Amino acid sequence: MISLMPARAPLNPGPLIWALFCLIALAGGALGQMDEYSVKAGYLYNFSKYVTWPQDAFTAPSAPFMICILGEDPFQGRLDAAIAGKTSGDGKPVEVRRLNAVDLDSFRPCQVIFISRSEKDQAAEIVDMLKRLPIFTVADFDSFAQRGGVADLRLEGTRIKVDLNVSAATRAKLKISARLQQVANLVP
Asked: Where are the domains of the chain?
């Protein structure tokens, strides 16, 4: 039988995945009525859904998924609100911890560390200290991902864009999902 319907191109899931990730990341990364750090808080939480950590990244099997903020907290409670009552991709409760010291003992319980701009001068030292630990390092200054961090949340116009350094993630024994890689800007 001959169909009179035009042939359809195969569905490209990339744009759909990007749309889903953006919706989950609070207002699609567009600032609009949301402020910059509310949107970034959504991204930090959503990394727990699109990245896989090795078992040794947790201090115990029952340990929560820990998002840590190193230095001054630019979120001012927005991150706590974004994760309230939520679980990570593997079902662990998500918690926020604030860190003031740059030392390995403070870093070990963290799966994600957001490095505040107040720690900008120590960023290279921090990245070097953490590069082989299973920690997803994120910042929002100075092309952080291009300088060895795992992710950079940068403001481009009125949108938050994600730069990912897959090599840094691989060194840290993290597996970034293909979905996240499709929607991010991959940097060397």
From this structure: 13-186
